[in-house]
Amino acid sequence: MMKIVHLTDTHLVAEGLNLYGLDPRARLDAAVADINRHHGDAEVVVITGDLTHWGEPEAYASLVDSLAPLHPPVIPLLGNHDDRAAFQIAFPGALEDAGGFVQGRRETAAGTLLFLDTNQPGTAAGWYCEERLAWLERELAALPSPAFIFMHHPPFDVGIAEMDRIGLTQAAAFRAVIEPHAGKIRHLFYGHVHRPICGSWLGIPTSTLRGTNHQVWLDFAAGDESLSFSYEEPAYAVVLVDETRVVIHSHDYLYDRGTYAARIGASAEKERAYALGFDAAAE
Ligand SMILES: [Fe+2]
Questions:
Q1: Is domain 2-258 given the CATH code 3.60.21.10 in the classification?
Q2: What pTM was computed for the model?
Q3: Which of 38, 82, 214, 241 counts the most CB atoms within 10 A of its CB?
């Protein structure tokens, strides 16, 4: 059984600054500490983009510092808020394909992990040019084992108009490359939407989760350019993989209102009395 941790949309700014009233560095530090405490045995931690909010060197420096204590190896990917050149200076050992994109492949006991770069300077939308499509086509054609794909922009609409407006621009071309290989792709992980979403696309299971700073409020009625953000809890996902399973747990790692024992095993009568008389404050 292999464990992967999925983090997304950390949106770091320079250390000490807040973003939308929240401290993205402190919230990522807390995630790193929680992952080390409970999931230090993960094979890899993947961050599916929007590592920073404005792509500034100071923000990447803060990201490097925040991730330094992480026990598992980390693979940071780019989102639309990132700056490829500033990222590559801060992370000289990061993924890089022959075209200079932050893309690559990693072989694991549970399969092949493919990492995609959908960043394009000057647009918040996802971009997957001919060069990247050709890279992906070669990788899929040569897959040594079933694959897991990680990317920032979902390659399909999610039903939130403003997010779909800044979705993957070359969605049709991307689909044409993926579809012949869909049977070999076990899961597609994405970011960008700042919400917990799961489903499937072309028969490929897909999922994303909340970011570690701000979230996107679920509002199907909002039109273009009227996206609402929220302060819902941040999360990271723990992915358990073996030959027959892909199981994804979402964990609200900043939750601090306590846990309680359910008294399972008590008689039905005692359990009923316990549940009805429950005093959360006394627990
Ligand atoms: Fe984001």
A1: yes
A2: 0.95
A3: 82
